[in-house]
């Protein structure tokens, strides 16, 4: 089995090394930040009014260091981390102590996955198809119009597009909700009504992501196909009288797909980091705000949990892509 | 342009989607929750990532989404609008023995938990014993440190035997945006791990009970208890008016403005900028209906803090020089367009503290001199006309400002320090500072003087605005100033890793009581630590032996001793003369209220209550709100 020995096993070892390095970095980097998780907890308790005797604060600090597992040397903490991780345990959140990090991730993850997987796949599909068509028929007016629209949208900061949609469709023409994942007071039991309600609340965040995503994929695909159109095999096909549709889909787009599929894999992996700006602008529940608040509050375990999830997702996605490349592109062989 | 059939079809499709979406959209709240019976308020601390956790005794639990306002009452509560302490679950103020080693608490009778079980002394005793036995839980360290024994003498009387004298032990149960709350014993006595217990669904001692939560953590819906009269608020003030209270986090200020324009948010905190954007919203009002709009009773003072362990800020002359190099009118104009109450003392200039401290100390302030002479006479730094100058600035901006000096003092404060850059220069020069050829200040060793101010990163926060406004003043005086904004500015200050910071210049006092122990104690020399270590006192790391003596005296007298105010005044004279921090103005709260569905909010014209929805006192407001009659 030369494939197994010469490619698959080394590739899996590489995959594990990437995750190990990722885990090590997410252990080290938060500890280099000027943030003290115990101090953050104490501040939350005291900053807005609760009175604690200063001597008691000293005692609380010692207790929290013990409970959070922050006593002992860095090496001891590091080994404790891997000991926990190998059992599939990210440890407790400091901010929501002693709630396990996995519990917090499970609360936010479905919203993030639902929104971002849908919009990523949708914008990838639409962007690539339109980008390919626009490149192939670049001399047509409608293709130039699409290109101009995409060129205008792509450089606009995402925040501006999100806010503009919010102002337009929730304020000026208030037809979509301002906030949240579903209507307040609605029973969270699976039904068509709930599904419609969730879709309604997800519409604006999804639209904002889809607009930007589609424009980005469109531009990339258009560029790739434009370059391919000068290739001999396409020119030859055109001379040979092959139908335009067949040239476009089977000769141009298919050959341009490889980097796009890699891009899709990376985008899907990045989903696990959440969409902070989307969540903030639309008050949409998800991992982005969870990650952001964990960084601010020095919640090392929560930070590590979300980041490591993202590292594993991206590394796994890339591994899978590497393995299925030959099916996408017959020129690739693992020999 | 002529629409072809294909384009017309596309347009029709888009319009159809929008119309379909609009028919689905309607209001944010579900059909079973009548809007006119629901009060919708903002959550100050943001999204709750763990929305089904109601364990208020574990650190980290979100409290201001209803737990502290509607669900768990405390023994006592600070009421800072009127300047009083309310007996909530307690029937009377605490009773101490002569040497403050025993405290007796009488509980209110006739209170019930929302599941129908009577509230008794057993609940309080159980709470204290449970917390004391579980390290890491809130108040464990305090109870471990002070409580020798806690027991009941009857169903409504609890006695605390203390390990050492403590005249303020009761303040652990005094709610001021935080206090020890009481557990329902009948629920918690069956819990193995109190720290891990979520307490969901929660049992309430307040007048509302949890109806629903957002799994995403953005909203919490509470419903009025049918037996609301069996709660402390019911006994004190009667029936709360809203049937439902919805706590909803809307996010950044622009979202709140949009939500209020749609009448989907009744009460929220805003910023100066978003408040001005909200004027177009029908039904919108602020705390004060006219300029300066702000809440002037928030018991916090803003300003700037020096690190007294870092040169040259360890020098009193330098600290005073920097105060005199600031024109408070310019600072407040830059920060909040003049909307604020200036305060020269390290005490919030709210109406009650103006009465307790600013008024009695004003004569002393007028006569107070610095150890420096100007025109052959000791220099008097206090400027009683500063508020008038601020009023003139506001009038010049076109705002409607009352002519009555008494009214101006109420709105803008009593006075501040003189803008006296020439005196500031004298103070610096006698300490070896000098100027270069361009007028820039040099340190005594001849190197250019550069000050770094560490600040809050939120541009709407007074700490941020103060930092930039003060930096501009000092630059004008000839000092190079850099402002560094960081989310970690508080942590840096706690470790002493700063020169100058916009952290609170003084620890907040109780707000509704003249006792200043809480504030002055934080400057006790035994709490301070070297730079690089966490301090448990004020982050400025300043202390003074004379103040230590006053703190000791305060510690030994009761909460209502007649010596409290005179002793605190002596302490404030020391902090004024030493200038460890520069107080600027009271925290300017910007609240936005929508009167479409509810009226009779506690505005400046009728401040029957504190005005914020995130304070625990919010519960006392609810019986006084009136439905506006709109459906």
Describe the structure.
The complex is a heterodimer of chains A (335) and B (631). Chain A has 335 residues and is mainly α. Chain A is 75% helix and 0% strand. Chain A has a domain at 110-285: MetI-like fold, CATH 1.10.3720.10. With 631 residues, chain B is of the alpha+beta class. Among the domains of chain B are: 73-188, Dipeptide-binding Protein, domain 1, CATH 3.90.76; 301-431 and 459-468 and 499-586, Dipeptide-binding Protein, domain 3, CATH 3.10.105. The longest helix of chain B is centred in the N-terminal third of the chain and has 21 residues, at 5-25. Chain B is globular. The two termini of chain B are 45 Å apart. The chains are: A mainly alpha (335), B alpha+beta (631). Chains A and B meet through helix 2, helix 3, helix 5, helix 7 and helix 8 of A and helix 1, helix 4, helix 7 and helix 16 of B.
Produce the secondary structure layout:
The complex is a heterodimer of chains A (335) and B (631).
Chain A (H helix, E strand, L loop, with lengths): L1 H31 L4 H10 L7 H15 L5 H12 L15 H36 L4 H13 L4 H15 L19 H37 L3 H8 L4 H27 L5 H7 L4 H11 L2 H29 L7
Helix pairs in contact in A: 1-13, 5-6, 5-8, 5-10, 5-13, 6-8, 7-8, 7-11, 8-10, 8-11, 9-10, 10-13, 11-12, 12-13
Chain B lengths: L4 H21 L12 E5 L24 H5 L4 E4 L4 E4 L7 E2 L5 E5 L14 H12 L7 H7 E8 L2 E6 L11 E2 L9 H4 L19 E6 L5 E6 L7 H6 L6 E5 L4 H9 L5 E3 L2 H6 L6 E2 L15 E6 L9 H9 L3 H9 L14 H17 L5 E2 L2 E2 L3 E2 L2 H11 L8 H8 L3 E2 L3 H9 L4 E2 L5 E2 L7 E6 L6 H16 L2 E6 L3 H6 L5 E2 L15 H4 L24 H11 L8 H15 L2 E6 L4 E4 L3 E2 L18 H4 L4 E2 L4
Parallel strand pairs in B: 1-11, 2-8, 21-22, 21-23
Antiparallel strand pairs in B: 2-3, 4-5, 5-7, 6-7, 9-10, 10-11, 12-25, 13-25, 14-23, 14-24, 15-16, 17-18, 19-20, 26-27
């Amino acid at each position: 089995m030369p494939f197994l020995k010469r490619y698959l096993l080394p590739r899996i070892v590489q995959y594990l090394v990437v995750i190990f390095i990722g885990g090590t970095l997410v252990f080290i980097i938060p500890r280099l930040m000027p943030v003290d998780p115990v101090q953050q907890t104490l501040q939350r308790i005291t900053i807005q009014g609760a009175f604690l005797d200063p001597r008691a604060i000293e005692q609380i600090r010692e207790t929290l260091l013990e409970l959070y597992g922050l006593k002992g040397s860095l090496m001891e903490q590091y080994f404790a981390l891997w000991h926990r991780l190998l059992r599939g345990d990210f440890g407790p959140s400091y901010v929501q102590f002693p709630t396990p990090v996995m519990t917090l991730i499970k609360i936010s993850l479905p919203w993030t996955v639902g929104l971002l997987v849908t919009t990523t796949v949708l914008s990838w599909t639409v962007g690539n198809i339109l980008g390919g068509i626009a490149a192939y028929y670049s001399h047509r007016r409608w293709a130039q119009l699409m290109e101009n629209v995409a060129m205008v949208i792509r450089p606009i900061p995402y925040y501006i597009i999100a806010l503009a949609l919010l102002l337009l469709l929730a304020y000026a023409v208030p037809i979509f909700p301002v906030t949240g994942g579903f209507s307040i007071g609605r029973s969270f039991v699976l039904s068509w009504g709930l599904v419609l309600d969730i879709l309604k609340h997800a519409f604006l965040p999804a639209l904002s992501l889809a607009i930007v995503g589609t424009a980005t994929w469109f531009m990339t695909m258009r560029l790739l196909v434009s370059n391919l159109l000068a290739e001999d095999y396409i020119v030859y096909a055109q001379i040979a009288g092959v139908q335009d549709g067949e040239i476009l889909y089977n000769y141009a787009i298919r050959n341009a797909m490889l980097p796009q599929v890699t891009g899709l894999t990376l985008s899907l992996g990045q989903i696990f980091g959440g969409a902070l700006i989307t969540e903030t602008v639309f008050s949409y529940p998800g991992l982005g705000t969870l990650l952001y608040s964990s960084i601010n509050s020095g919640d090392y375990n929560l930070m590590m949990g979300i980041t490591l999830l993202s590292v594993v997702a991206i590394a796994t996605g890339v591994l899978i892509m590497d393995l299925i490349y030959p099916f996408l592109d017959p020129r690739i062989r693992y020999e | 342009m002529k629409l072809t059939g294909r384009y017309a079809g596309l347009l029709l499709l888009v319009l159809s989607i929008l119309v379909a979406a609009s028919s689905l959209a309607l209001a944010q709240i579900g059909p079973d929750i009548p809007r006119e019976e629901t009060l919708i308020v903002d959550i100050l601390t943001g999204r709750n990532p763990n929305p089904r956790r109601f364990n208020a005794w574990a650190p980290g639990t979100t409290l201001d989404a209803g737990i502290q306002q509607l669900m768990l009452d405390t023994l006592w509560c600070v009421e800072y609008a009127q300047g009083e302490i309310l007996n909530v679950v307690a029937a009377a103020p605490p009773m101490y023995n002569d040497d403050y080693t025993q405290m007796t608490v009488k509980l209110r009778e006739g209170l019930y938990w929302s599941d129908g079980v009577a509230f008794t002394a057993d609940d309080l005793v159980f709470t204290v014993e449970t917390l004391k036995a579980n390290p890491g839980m809130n108040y464990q360290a305090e109870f471990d440190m002070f409580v020798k024994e806690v027991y009941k003498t009857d169903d409504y009387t609890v006695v605390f035997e203390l390990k050492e004298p403590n005249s303020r032990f009761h303040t652990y149960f005094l709610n001021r945006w935080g206090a020890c709350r009481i557990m329902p014993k009948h629920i918690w006595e069956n819990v193995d791990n109190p720290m891990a217990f979520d307490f969901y669904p929660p049992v309430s001692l307040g007048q509302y009970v949890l109806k629903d939560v957002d799994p995403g953590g953005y909203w919490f819906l509470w419903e009025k208890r049918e037996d609301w009269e069996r709660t402390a608020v019911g006994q004190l003030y009667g029936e709360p008016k809203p049937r439902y209270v919805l706590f909803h986090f809307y996010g950044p200020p622009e979202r709140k403005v949009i939500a209020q324009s749609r009448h989907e948010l009744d009460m929220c905190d805003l910023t100066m900028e978003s408040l001005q954007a909200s004027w177009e919203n029908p039904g919108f009002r602020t705390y004060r209906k006219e300029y300066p709009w702000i809440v002037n009773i928030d018991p916090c003072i803003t300003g700037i803090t020096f690190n007294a362990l870092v040169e040259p800020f360890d020098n009193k002359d330098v600290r005073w020089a920097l105060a005199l190099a600031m024109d408070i009118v310019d600072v407040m104009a830059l920060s909040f367009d003049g909307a604020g109450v200036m305060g020269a003392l390290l005490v919030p200039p709210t109406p009650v503290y103006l009465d307790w401290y600013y008024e009695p100390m004003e004569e002393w302030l007028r006569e107070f001199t610095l150890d420096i002479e100007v025109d052959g006479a000791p220099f008097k730094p206090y400027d009683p006309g500063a508020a008038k100058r601020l009023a003139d600035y506001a009038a010049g901006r076109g705002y409607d400002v009352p002519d009555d000096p008494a009214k101006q003092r109420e709105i803008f404060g009593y006075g501040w320090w003189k803008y006296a850059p020439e005196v500031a220069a004298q103070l610096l020069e006698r300490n070896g500072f000098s100027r270069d050829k361009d007028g820039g200040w040099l340190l005594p060793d001849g190197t250019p003087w550069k000050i770094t101010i560490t600040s809050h990163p939120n541009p709407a926060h007074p700490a941020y605005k103060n930092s930039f406004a003060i930096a501009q003043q000092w630059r004008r005086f000839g000092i190079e100033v850099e402002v560094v904004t960081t989310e970690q500015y508080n942590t840096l200050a706690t470790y002493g890793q700063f020169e100058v910071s916009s952290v609170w210049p003084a620890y907040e006092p109780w707000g509704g009581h003249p006792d200043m122990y809480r504030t002055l104690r934080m400057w006790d020399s035994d709490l301070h630590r070297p730079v690089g270590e966490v301090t448990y006192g004020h982050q400025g790391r300043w202390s003074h032996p004379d103040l230590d003596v006053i703190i000791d005296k305060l510690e030994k007298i009761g909460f209502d001793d007649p010596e409290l105010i005179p002793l605190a005044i002596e302490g404030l004279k020391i902090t004024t003369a030493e200038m460890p921090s520069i107080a600027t103005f009271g925290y300017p709260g910007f609240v936005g209220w929508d009167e479409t569905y509810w009226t009779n909010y506690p505005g400046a014209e009728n401040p029957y209550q504190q005005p914020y929805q995130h304070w625990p006192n919010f519960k006392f407001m609810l019986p006084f709100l009136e439905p506006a009659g709109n459906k």
